[in-house]
Amino acid sequence: MRGKEITVLKVPFHPVDMEGALEEIAGFIISGRPHQVVTANPEMVMAALKDGELMQILTGAELVVADGIGIVWAARRLGTPLPERVPGVELAAAALSLAAENGYRVYLLGGAPGVAAKAARRLVHRYPGLEVVGVQHGYFTPGEEEEVAARIAAASPHLLLVGLGMGKQEKWIHRHRQSLGVPVSMGVGGSLDVFAGRVRRAPAWVCRLGLEWFYRLLLQPRRLPRMLALPKFVLRVLREAGP
Ligand code: UDP
């Protein structure tokens, strides 16, 4: 069972390492009931402080992990350390590997047209035995939303990866979780682009130094305005932690 929740600026995180997070996910699938998994970074915490709906979803999610070094630093600074960072893309990969080993069905939702399909082809190659029961790009209209959800429910996956961008994907999952009936739905941001080979992850040494965010910024300068949330996050944590 998961341990006590640790809050970082009011957002509750579960103190699990990668292995623990995967154990939770395995348990969720076995239980069969719908569960929402969130990988939250400082940007998401700052967004939730301004967006009550998002905050409520994070508070109610069955598993919220620390996506990145910023959250791990904050938790330590606040005197309630988390075991380690659990990057979303790595947790998604581990869940796919678990699915391949156990014959769990997977559905990929999100990304530009063609991305989820390409990701599926590459993932099946990487995880032999992986059963992807459907893909859907992330640029459908609000009018098509119910139809998209119905198609996913009909495919009856055990694991649904949703890459519609931070916040949007969490709300989408929350809106549809009961009707979908999928045991594990997880927001994965741009991970489908990574799995499709469209976006490269930072080299291991960059990740080890905790500089993956900087690498992503160099590759995608359009992220700069959103990254301004990071210094605000640091200041809020320092203020809350005190001297
Ligand atoms: N995306 C989508 N539908 C939308 C908006 C975004 O499918 O309406 C996808 C986009 O193609 C990309 C992902 O959502 O694959 C967001 O990626 P980003 O790296 O910006 O992730 P974030 O940091 O926002 O989670």
What does this entry look like structurally?
- The chain is an alpha/beta fold.
- The protein has one domain.
- Helix content is 52%, strand content 15%.
- The chain is built from 13 helices and eight strands.
- Strands 4-3-8-7-5-6 form a six-stranded parallel beta sheet, sandwiched between helices.
- Helix 8 (168-180) links the parallel strand 7 and strand 8.
- Helix 1 crosses helix 5 (88-102).
- The model has no long low-confidence stretch (mean pLDDT 94).
- The chain binds uridine-5'-diphosphate.
Quick synopsis:
With 243 residues, this protein is of the alpha/beta class. It has one domain (6-238). It contains 13 helices and 8 strands.
Molecules bound to protein: uridine-5'-diphosphate
Compute the CA-based radius of gyration. 17 Å
For the termini, the CA-CA separation is 34 Å
What structural category characterises the helix and strand content? alpha/beta
Average pLDDT level: 94
- Which percent range describes the beta-strand content? 15-25%
Helix fraction by DSSP (H/I, runs of at least 4): 40-55%
> Any idea how many domains?
1
Query: In which order are the strands of the major sheet placed?
Result: 4-3-8-7-5-6
Largest sheet: 6 strands, parallel
Query: Helical element count?
Result: 13
Q: Helix and strand succession? A: EEHEHHEHHEHEHEHEHHHHH
Instruction: Count all strands and give the number.
Output: 8
Overall geometry:
globular
Spell out the blueprint of helices and strands:
Blueprint lengths: L5 E3 L2 E3 L4 H14 L3 E6 L1 H9 L1 H9 L2 E4 L2 H9 L10 H15 L2 E6 L4 H12 L4 E6 L8 H11 L3 E5 L4 H13 L3 E4 L3 H5 L8 H5 L3 H8 L4 H4 L1 H13 L2
Parallel strand pairs: 3-4, 3-8, 5-6, 5-7, 7-8
Antiparallel strand pairs: 1-2
Uridine-5'-diphosphate (UDP) binds next to helix 9.
